[in-house]
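Local shape tokens

___
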Amino acid sequence: MKVEVRLFATFREGREKKYFLDMPEGSRILDILHMLKIDADEVSILLLNGRDGDAMRTINDSDVVAVFPPVGGG
């Protein structure tokens, strides 16, 4: 199955902005994070198809996962 992954802010450093990954059935968002060498503890916001997601959620074909680190500023 194909999944789109969008990375934001510091997660783009040394990586692409967007990935189109072939993932096996039954994969979880956590599997994507491991593949991209992103520690789940470093993720502040995780969206699955535009809604709040959890790293343990199972992904489906054509899903879009967005990953944000903590963001500061003011």
Notes: The chain has one domain: 2-68. The first strand starts at residue 2 and ends at 7. The beta strands are 2-7, 18-22, 45-48, 51-52, 64-68.
